[in-house]
Here is the input.
Amino acid sequence: MTGPVLVLVGAPSSGKTTVGTALADLLGVPFRDTDADVEAAAGQTVADLFVEHGEPHFRALEEQAVARALAEHDGVLALGGGAVLCAATRERLVGYGRGGGTVVWLDVDLASAAERVGLGRTRPVLGLNPRATLRTMLAARAPLYAEVATLTVATGDREPGAVVAEVAAAVCPQRVGP
Here is the structure.
């Protein structure tokens, strides 16, 4: 199989970057985040893209970034929280999973997500009322994450190390200790 060692999906604050970088270090492979790819290509932050060009523009750039990363990257890949909103991206992820790849849904509960997000302005989709927006987002996106996932790991109220260990044991048991 070509492509990433594994792909991480999940809501904002589910731990994709934290868990993904730790997994990449553990497995000795590179880490890649499609939000960072979009920012590098556009020369703007995700937040600025949302404000200046709108969500549809950002989502189009995101779809392209995911397609490229799935084709090119051979390490741990983290997708933006809303990448699964795109039907073409979901099809690519399902195909990747059917081809033997692992798509890990880092499933976070509302209380943990709200605590992690805080009141930061770096997450433009959360708007003015992050907790209410998170509640709606988690409910709406859960079926989409479930559709593409080959493995679901709960991250709420857990230390990153425990999540990393669970994912690594499931994905690459021969590469991690007992």
